[in-house]
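step 4 of 6: structure.
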Amino acid sequence: MPKLAVIGLCAATLALPNAVAFAAPASKPPAHATLNLDSTKKALESGDEAQVLAALDEIEKLADRRAAPLVEALLGRGANSKLLLRAIAVAGALAAPSSSSALAPYVKHRAPEVRRAAAQSLARTKGSVAISALRDALRSNDPALRGTAAEGLGVLGANEAVPDLFVVLPKEVPEAAGAIGVLCRADECQRFVGLLGKLPFDVMESGFLPLLLRTDAAAPDAAKLHLIEQLRRMATQKSGALLASALASYPTNGNPKIRAAIDAAIHGRPVTSTSTEP
Amino acid sequence: MSIRRSFLAFAPSALWLVGCGAASVNSSSKALDPDWQNDAGASIAQVEQRLHSLPRVANARVAVGVSDAGLLASSLDGKSRWTYSGHPTSAPLIAGALVIFSEGDQIVALDAATGSKSWSIGNRGLSLRGAANDGSLSALVLADSHKSLFLGVSRAGTTLGSVESKADLGVPAARGGVAFVPWSSQYVSALDINSGDENGRLLARVQVSQALNFGGDLYFGEQGLLRFDEKARFASTNQANHVGLPKVELPGKPSWLGSGLVNPLSQANARTKIRIFAAPVASPSGEVTLGAGTFAASYFRVVFGLDSKSGALRWVRALPADIVGGAAASSGFVLCDVNGKVWSLDRAGADVTAFELGGKIRMCSADAGADEVPGAPARSGLAVQIGEALDNLEPTMAEAERYLVSELGKLEDPIVTKSLIDLSSSPRVPPDLRLETRRLLALRKNGTEYMLSALARHYDFVSGVLLPPPVGPLADALAASAETRAAPLLAKHLNDPANSADDVAHAARALTKLATPAEYDDLRTFFALYRATADDEALVAAVVACAEALLRVGGADARALVERAAQDPLTQNDVRRALPAVLAKSANTGTAQAATH
């Protein structure tokens, strides 16, 4: 199962606060709808707020990626906050990788709402520019932006950001847990599980379900078994709910021994840490 | 004024009855007579001449701390210690080879070397104000708010001459059987310790309430000191050998000697920790200077070493605990801290020795005599010392911090630039002080490498850099020195929202001078992001300056960009209004340059 799908699943299960922001691009427009690029360009360059807004609405409605360069040009010229927020959202909706370069500077805008919107859109336009911009945003002095950036890095599969995510996780960036759960590899996953008990459960929680549901080889079963046993020992309502969610959502192509371990833990039976690798 | 003189040779136990009863011997002597006529220094000259050749008697070189349990004392070499169990009610006064203090209704004298009791006498219902010893006899001044009493005491503790006065008597000194007693702010009367007779009088034209023994030489004064030597006779015409402190504003406004009309209590107060330590030293010609050209001022646990002529800061130390007493030597200082540690610092503030008194103390008296504290290995420069001291201080020490920052700004050393950058970027520095460090930093003309290095830093939550560098002041300083290496660093800071809008405005302003075509992209990005969103005055100024920089380095592309922004209704109004002037200025400059070519 692709990581993005896992995140989507987890978001639905755990009701992640920004799940909507990172939702997949808008569905395809009706077949008959077409965008007049010339008139749209003219409207976007009109300097008239109403015309620009109308053009952006139209672009979003028709979800025509051909218009992405026009939105990028608008972002490159700059506009007032109202138009910027709209243009950033439309660029995100179009999810054109080329838009990442135009969006990236806005992650460092002085207006918090602008930079947060840009970070959310970058998670949709993707690419190395987006990853780089979100990694920068993780270093920002804006706590909300750091959280958004952490989530975005998880969505973008930015494995290279995991060390930084570990740094910010205990510093009031709980969103980093979700990203680490998705991105961690081998020892990183063990290290992440090892933080349970050292960091509050609420901080760690968002990363556990993605980790348990991962089927890729980079997420070691030993780490998952360790986590399952830790959750069993906690024997709290929250840990029980998390195990139950994991069992209910467990992918069909997942390792049956992990599923069995989750089931055992739910029933209070200890989980052995012996290797379950095929 | 009622003046009563008695010559007593009774045992101490009988003194109280005699002193207070009708049996006291009244004399018609004119000791401490307020109607005395100025004799132009004749009488004091005679006294000086008589005492001149006598050997100097220095006070014991000891430090005596007051603890909750009594006294903790040590010789200044730390080799000999003693304790006294009791409850002193006055500060311990080091008088010759004695330590004298009041306890209950007694005045107690201990041997300064051993702590053994030498004598004790009744206090006559008065508080101890001052004590002196000439190597054999002691002179006490006891006082309350109504009267003062001079009292001579023999080596064995019998009372000798006494003079009671309604005048406020100050702290005495003694030499060769004569006590020198300041009074009425202007007189120092030479009283025979045995008889109480007044042998001579000095009239000073400066405030006098203390007579002091520094290394065997006697001095009189309060804010400054005049020396008791052959020129003392000219004190009434201000021609005596005199030394004072330079006028200097120091944290807490410490005083040096203070009024000698205050009874020294055994309880500490704020003044205990805010003091000046200075020792007068006479040259063979009689000229008096302060020990080795330096005096020290304490402010809680900070000690400042200052130039005795100019008052300029020469060194600074932040000790681990508050300073509660000490003394100046002829070169160097002895200071006690509240933990009972006694520090010997040389004239440059370097540690020479340190030893423990053996417990916490609330105050301390010390006498360093005429000896010099030997020199210790040289310390780092003043700029580094100030930086270290500031690193050590708590935010509650704001007054000391302000003083140190102001002194730092006076230094030319390039390392000062680094210290100011560090202070400007430190979350420990109070905001108002940070403003001052930034102001001083903007004026720096050296330390460029430190500035560039600082500009390379940005706020970084991951790395734990939680304050951006002082971009604005650095931009000002680097622009003033036309340092083009700063351009790419400043351009990056334009687009870092962790910097204040004001800092960004200064960076943009500096880039109008320093930018090169290499900064075009950063400038253009900033211009695009804020030409329509600038929401405060500083940001508007930054955008306008950015346009100026763009026009300078960006050629036709930049001109088109700015012209379009000037006409775009979405451009922020203030920015739009300012851009035509920027464009016109740029065009004029271009025309002028073309004409030159």
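step 5 of 6: annotate
 - The longest strand of chain B covers residues 127-133.
 - The interface with chain A takes residues 458-463, 466, 495-498, 501, 525, 527-533, 535, 539, 564, 567-570, 572 of chain B (CB under 8 Å).
step 6 of 6: archive
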